[in-house]
């Protein structure tokens, strides 16, 4: 309805940089919001495999943290005049596909998925926060400061893979598959949503930065596999 | 292992009153803690019946609030030197039985259960907070201040029962059944746990107070049914 052209400072390539008014910011928040809700339901589903009450409680606490992140993003969207539910629906298929293609078949697979997923989300939040204007970065950092609930995974996975080479090989493959599916779905999302590509491209060095971003994700993923005793 | 008799001020009927050292306080916190975890998993299960994403998000937000309550109770137990998981396990059967016997078969039944359950929990927290020493009451009130996430239910249930007398009758019966099962399970818990009975009996007027407590629960339940358009 609003045919007013964007303010010149947003489109002038000389001044570059992203402003909080960039339409990609709304899309980014909507994508992340759906990611949190999808993670909530998947964690609680996968927690059914827990061998005991303590495991189920740890997973429930992580799931609850996802909803706290969701609320930060929903409030940020509301401040931008955007209703979160319709805005996030368009990202449902990519996130549901990721979870459908990475349904764990054992409690250990569920634990590794939780840890890897939480870590990838944290990396992702940190990367984008650096590239965004302060006002937007503050929202992203508020969400990030809430991650790190998955430390309980490390002891349990390390114990299992120390006791069994077969488990170590299985879980190492599983962990690589998780990263691969995450990258695949991230690329589908970018291919379908020009505003998001534009947001990443205009914040810093563009395409080079995007390649480096995926490289960095792979390196930090390798570090996490080592923490879990999988590499 | 500890054969020391309780300190005289705890057992002297003349001074009455409950101290924070009463063993029933630990049992109460453990019972409530299991209640929060059970509610978390049931809400997320029942949310699967939601007709849309907004409904699923509302249920997820309520479930996340239950885990925040759980954490308040766990911390309070830790301050008392009690490990929450073993302490709460003995209350599993009563709470799981309540949920098993009140499994909703429609989304509207799930909404009513959420609302009634949240309200009963709030009543219960408020009643016991008044009867407890300040230090303990503060914990209970911190949990209570977090309830009230179920207001989203009212509009949806009222609309459905205004449109259909059949729905109103069905849901009114359902709502009475929820209260009945909650009272039945509460009585089983009291019958099995003398420390809890002693806690309630010694805080105020004892048995009379307990009867009045259940009477008040029924009255506030009737008020809630009216809010929902069921009475």
TrEMBL record, chains A, B:
Residues 24-201 form the Ferritin-like domain. InterPro entries: Ferritin-like, Ferritin-like_SF, Ferritin_actino. SUPFAM superfamilies: Ferritin-like. This is tRNA-(MS[2]IO[6]A)-hydroxylase (MiaE)-like. It comes from Mycolicibacterium rutilum.
């Amino acid at each position: 309805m609003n045919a007013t052209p964007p303010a010149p400072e947003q489109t002038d390539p000389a001044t570059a940089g992203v402003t909080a008014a960039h339409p990609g910011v709304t899309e980014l928040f909507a994508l992340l919001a759906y990611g949190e809700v999808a993670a909530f339901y998947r964690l609680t589903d996968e927690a059914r495999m827990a061998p005991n009450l303590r495991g189920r409680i740890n997973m429930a606490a992580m799931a609850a943290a996802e909803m706290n992140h969701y609320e930060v993003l929903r409030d940020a969207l509301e401040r931008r005049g955007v209703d979160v539910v319709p805005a996030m629906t368009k990202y449902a298929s990519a996130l549901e596909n990721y979870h459908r293609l990475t349904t764990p078949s054992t409690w250990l697979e569920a634990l590794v998925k939780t840890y890897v997923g939480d870590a990838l989300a944290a990396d992702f939040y940190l990367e984008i926060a650096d590239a965004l204007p302060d006002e937007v970065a503050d929202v992203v950092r508020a969400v990030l400061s809430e991650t790190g609930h998955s430390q309980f995974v490390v002891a349990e996975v390390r114990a299992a893979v120390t006791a069994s080479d077969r488990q170590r090989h299985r879980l190492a493959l599983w962990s690589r598959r998780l990263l691969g599916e995450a990258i695949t779905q991230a690329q589908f999302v970018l291919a379908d949503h020009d505003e998001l590509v534009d947001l990443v491209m205009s914040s810093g060095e563009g395409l080079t930065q995007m390649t480096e971003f995926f490289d960095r994700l792979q390196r930090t993923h390798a570090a996490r596999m080592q923490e879990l005793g999988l590499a």
